[in-house]
Amino acid sequence: MKFLFIFFSLLLCSAGITNAQEFQVSGVFTDQENVPIPGATVLHKESDAGTQTDANGYYELTVPKGKQTITFNFSGQKPIIKTLQVSKDTELNVQISEKDVMLDEVLVSAIRVSGDAPVTYSNLTAEEMAPRNLGQDIPVLMSYMPSVVTTSDAGAGVGYTGIRVRGSDATRVNVTINGIPYNDSESHGTFWVNMPDFASSTENLQLQRGVGTSTNGAGAFGASLNLLTDAISQDPYAEISGSIGSFDTRRANIKFSTGKLNDHIEVSGRLSRIKSDGYIDRASSDLESYFLQGAYVDENTLIKALVFGGQEKTYQSWNGVEQYQIDAYGRTFNSAGAIYDAEGNIVDYYDNEVDDYKQDHFQLHWNERLNQNWSTNLAIHYTKGRGFFEQYRQDDDFATYGFDPITVNGDTINTTDLIRRRWLDNDFYGTTFSAEYKNEKIEFIAGGALNKYEGDHFGEIIWARYATDSEIRDRYYDDNSTKTDFNSYAKLIYSVTDNLSLYGDMQYRRVSYQANGNETGLVDDDFNFFNPKAGLTYHLNEDNSLYFSYARANREPNRNDYESGDPEPETLNDFELGWRYAKPNIKINANTYYMRYKNQLVLTGELNDVGAPLRENVGDSYRLGLEVDATFRFAEKFFLQPNFALSSNKNVDFVTQIDGELQELGNTNISYSPNFIAGNNFTYTPTKSLQFSFLSKYVSEQYLGNTDAENSKLSAYFVNDLNLQYTLKTNSFFKSIVLSGLVNNIFDVEYISNGYYYTYDVSNNDGSVSTLNGTGYYPQAGINFLVGATVTF
Question: Is 104-229 a domain of CATH 2.170.130.10?
C-alpha cells in the first residue's frame, strides 16, 4: 500500500503540470446503433500515447498543437484512423460503419440484441470485469448487474457458485458460449466450476432478462446469458497474472497472442490454476483450466477453432448448515465427510469427500460475409465431460447397493460403512447455424441448431466394511440417457420510419428425452414448442426511446423433476415495457415486466442428495416488476452506476399438504424471489492510471419455500466492496504492469445469500399426521481480500 500511495501522490502532483501547447482531444466511440463501445484502445500515433474507452465509450487524449493522427483499435478488424488539425481542445466522436463491424461479434449476433431491439438487457465487457477479475467465478463478477443475486457454496466466490435473475435460478438461465449451449442438457444447470478463470478468456457478455430473443439450448425462463470469447488481437502480446488473498486463495495464469501473422492468422491461449481453502470448513478448491484459439480472418471471412476446458476438484460443501449446527460449531461448519461415533458425536472427517470432474470443449466457427447485405455463420461443437463425486457413507442399507444380508458371528448384517463414487460420463455435440440480411430498413436473421446429449450415470463402491459377494468395479446402478434438441428461428427488425421499428421472432423447438433408471428418472418424452415474440421500438427523439415486447417460452422438465414425480412442461408469457435515455454523460434504462407462468416449476426449497434444488409444478404464478439502471458521469473523473429492481412474485391460489391435509394458502410468495434488489458502482479516476471503485449490493428478505412460513425466511443483507486498480505504463521490456486490489464485504457483515427449506411428516400417537420443517443456510465470508498483478510484454 505504501508503494501505491507514493505513486498516487506523484500522479496527482504531475496532473497539474501541462504544456502550454498541449490540448485535449476527447469524445465517444460508438457502434452502428450509436451504442458506446467500452474497452477500445485509442492511440496517438505521433507520441504512441494511448488510453481506453470507458464503460460509456468515452476517451480523452492530450496531444500537441498541429496535425495529429489518432487510431481506434477494437476487436476483429483493422483500426479506424482519424487525422485532424488541433489548435484547441477538440471533440472527436467516432461511429463505426458497416465495413468496420467486428467479425468476432458476428459469432453471437444471431442471438444477441442491440440498442434498437425491444428486449431488456445489460452488457458487461472484459475491461469492466478486469479490476475485479482475481479468480472469482463469472456469476460473482456479474453480481452488481440489475436483478442479479449470486451465491457461493464455499462462501468466497471460488468453487461452486450460482446465479439467480429475477428470482429464477441458474437452471432457468440459458447460457451460451459463442452461440453454443452451455447448460447441462439433463439438469439444465450451469457449472462454472468446470471452467475456472473463464472470465480471463471472455471478451464480453450480454445478459437478457426475461425471455429475451430466440437462442440455442433450453428456453430462458429468467434470463439468457451469452458470452463471446477472446477476440482476435491485432498485435502480439504475452501476459502473466497472479493473485493471492484470504483463505489461502491463489490464482496464476498466462496468456499470449501471436497477433495477426501475415495480416490473417492469429493463435492465442491461456493456462490458469486456482486454489483456495474456502471460507467454509474444508471447502477447498483445486482448479485448472486452459483456452486455445486459432483464427483466420480476411475482409469477409472469419474461421475460428477453439479448444478450452478445465478440471475441478472441490471438497463438497453443498450440505449447507442448519441453525443448531451454527449454534454448536459456528457458521463455517461443514457436515460433508463427517464420521460419527455410536453416540452421534463427530470423531473425524473423510479426507476425500470431493467432487472431481473434467470437461473439454471443442468449437469450430466459420463466418462468411457474402456481400454488403448477407452474412452466414456455421459452427460445429463437441463437449466431453467425465468425473465423479466421492462420499463416505455410514450404516447404509445393503438393499441400496443390491447386497444380500450376511451373517457374522451369528448376527445378521444388512448395513455397512462404505465409500462410493457416483460417476457421470457424457458427450454433447451438434451444430448451430444462421444467415443474416441487413439493409437500411431491414435486419433479418434465420438460424437454428441440432444438438445431441448422451450421458452415462453409474455408481461404484471403492471400499466397504462388509461387501458380501460384490466384485471389484461392480456398479450398483448403471443408467444412461439421451436427449436430442432441435430448434429453428427467424427474426426480423423492420424500420417503418426513422422513429419506429417493428420486431418479430418465431422459434420452433423439438426436444426428445429418454432415460432408463432411478438415478436419471424413467423418461420417454417428446416435446414440440412454438415460441413467438413481437415488439416495437419508438424513438421519441435523438436521446429517448420506448419499447414494448411480448414473448412466449416453453420449457421441458429436467432430470431432477422426473426423479421427483411426473412433471409437466411449463409455459411463460413475458410482457416488457421500457424506456431508454442516452446522452454522452447520462444513460438511463427503465422497464417494467409482467411474467405470467403456467405450470411453473418453482423451487420447493428442498435439495436432493447432491445439493441440487428440487422443483414442483405450481399451476399459475407471476412475476411483476420494475427495473432501473443508470450511468452518470461527473467532472470526467467520477461515474456512478446505480440500479434497482422492485418486484412482486406470487404463486396464485397455492395449495399444499400440511399436517396430512391439503390446505389452500391463497397467493404466496415464490421461493428465492426477493422483492427488492439494488446495486451501485461508484468509481473515481483521479488519473488515467488510477481507479477506485466502491460497490454496493442490497438484497431484501426472501422465502426459501412457497408457504410463507416464517422460519423459511432468509434475512435481507447489504454488502459493500472496495476495488482498486493502478496501471503503470513503461517503455521497457514490459508494456504495462497492472496492480489490482479487492476488499470484499468491507464492513464485515455476517450474511447468508442462499439456503434451503424442507418439510417432513411424522405420525402422532392418535393417528394424525404433523408436518415438521427445517431450514439450512449457506453463510458467506466476512471481510476478505484479493490482490493481484498483471504484467504484459
Answer: yes
Q: Which of 233, 237, 208 is nearest to 223 (CA)?
A: 208
Pair 59, 81: CB distance under 8 Å: no
CB contact at 8 A, 57 and 28: yes
Show the cell assigned to 439. Answer: 439493409
Bridge partners (DSSP) listed for residue 56:
none
The grid cell for 108 is 453471437
Q: What is the pLDDT of residue 285?
A: 97
293: cell is 484459439
- How many residues would you count in the chain? 793
Residue 618 pLDDT: 92
Confidence of residue 1 (pLDDT cuts 50, 70, 90): very low
Contacts of 411 (CB under 8 A, 6+ apart): none
Supply the pLDDT for residue 521.
66
Cβ(682)–Cβ(690) below 8 Å: no
591 forms beta bridges with: 578, 627
Residue 12 pLDDT exceeds 60: no
- The grid cell for 22 is 498541449
Class of domain 21-101: mainly beta
CA distance linking residue 42 with residue 36, whole number of Å: 14
pLDDT of residue 496: 95
Mean pLDDT of 26-35: 77
Give the CATH class of 237-792.
mainly beta
Q: Determine the average pLDDT of the residues in 230-238.
A: 90
Which ranges in the chain are annotated with CATH 2.60.40.10?
21-101
Is the separation of the CB atoms in 274 and 159 below 8 Å? no
Other Cβ atoms within 10 Å of 127 Cβ, number: 17
Q: How many CB atoms sit inside 10 A of residue 464's CB?
A: 18
CA 489, distance to chain mean position in Å, is 24
Phi, psi at residue 6, to the nearest 5°? -65, -45
Bridge partners for 398 per DSSP: none
Backbone angles phi, psi at 569, to 5 degrees: -65, 160
Amino acid occupying residue 568: E
d(CA 149, CA 128): 19
Contact present, 559 and 543 (Cβ < 8 Å)? no
pLDDT tens string 352-386: 999 999 999 999 999 998 988 999 999 999 999 99
Q: How confident is the model at residue 295 (pLDDT cuts 50, 70, 90)?
A: very high
Instruction: Tell me if residue 91 falls in helix, strand or coil.
Output: strand
Distance CA 409, CA 74 (A): 77
Over range 460-470, report the average pLDDT. Answer: 88
C-alpha cell recorded at residue 719? 454488502
- Contact criterion met (CB below 8 Å) for 77 and 101: yes
CA–CA dist 294, 306 (Å, integer):
7
Query: How much is the pLDDT for 52?
Result: 74
Identify the three-state secondary structure at position 209: strand
Grid cell locating 128: 469492466
pLDDT per residue over 400-439, tens digit each? 998 889 888 888 999 999 999 999 999 999 999 999 999 8
Domain with CATH 2.40.170.20 in the chain: 237-792
CATH 2.170.130.10 domain position(s) in the chain: 104-229
**142: nearest Cα among 679, 671, 573:** 679
Max mean pLDDT range (47-56, 513-522, 604-613): 604-613
Query: Cell 471471412, residue?
Result: 301
Confidence at 770, pLDDT banded by 50, 70, 90? confident
317 in Cβ contact with 153 (< 8 Å):
yes
- DSSP-derived letter for residue 557 is -
**What average pLDDT is seen over the chain?**
90
Give first-to-last CA distance, the chain, whole Å: 24
H helix or E strand, kind and range, residue 325: helix 323-329
